[in-house]
Automatic annotation (TrEMBL):
Record protein name field: DUSP domain-containing protein
One Pfam family named in its UniProt record: DUSP
Alphabetized PROSITE patterns for the sequence: DUSP (PS51283)
Domain DUSP: 100-211
Source organism: Phycomyces blakesleeanus
Length: 233
């Protein structure tokens, strides 16, 4: 369901490749735990990296960059049980199903959140998500009947000039709730999904915005958050 959301969003509003940040993304990763969108050039150069099977947003085929021939990925067309599996995946991605789709999306995004919570690789760049939007998303994920959140709005994290406010409060621990904070910290992987699925009104803020002496305190927040996982067995 998360991949179907990404497919629907990509068809309506193509985004930039998550690797080079320059070319239009043409493929959606079929990895079970990632929904990245990447351009053909980056995939050809890296052979799909860890998970070579991709959904071609232009042709609508499943393709494999791990078994390229003359620089072109192989279209996944196999016989028997695998053929039925491929057909089922493609139909699930492309079929518009209003009835029940919201509940499936709710469960899929809760699973994404749990996967994020269990993530042990904290070397990824991390982003900030304004607390009130984060709470609305939490209600959608956990309470049947709750509406979808609107666009992510990070205005409360900014100064009047649009720069990140160095006085905001952030969580120090990955696993302990921090209700009296202004934002939640999420990895680039989850941020990429949320940005595409919901859109962002205004600027996105990440570790890259913590330049200068006035952001020393926020850098400590980020460092403590990312190393807090070492405190748990």
């Amino acid at each position: 369901e998360a991949k179907r959301t990404m497919y629907t969003v990509a068809i309506k509003a193509p985004s930039l490749c998550e690797i080079c940040k320059e070319n239009t993304a043409t493929h959606l990763s079929m990895a079970p735990t990632a929904d990245g969108q990447v351009c053909r050039g980056c995939l050809s150069a890296n052979k799909g990296d860890v998970f070579p099977v991709q959904f071609d947003l232009e042709s609508g085929d499943l393709v494999c960059f791990g078994c390229q021939k003359e620089g072109e990925p192989r279209v996944v067309r196999v016989l028997g049980q695998e053929e039925a599996k491929v057909k089922g995946i493609l139909e699930a991605l492309k079929t518009e199903d209003e009835q029940g789709s919201l509940d499936r999306r709710r469960k899929a995004e809760q699973l994404l959140y749990v996967q994020e919570l269990r993530r042990e690789d904290m070397s990824l760049k991390h982003y900030l998500v304004e607390k009130s939007w984060s709470r609305t998303w939490m209600l959608f994920r956990t309470r049947e009947g709750s509406p979808l959140p609107g666009k992510i709005t990070n205005h409360k994290l900014a100064r009047s000039n649009g720069m990140l406010d160095p006085n905001i409060r952030l969580p120090l621990d990955k696993y302990r709730p921090a209700p009296e904070t202004h934002a939640d910290i999420v990895s680039e992987t989850l941020w990429n999904y949320l940005e595409k699925a919901y859109g962002v009104q205004g600027r996105a803020y990440s570790e890259d915005d913590l330049h200068g002496p006035e952001y020393v305190r926020l850098r400590i927040y980020f460092d403590d958050f990312k190393t807090s996982i070492l405190s748990y067995p």
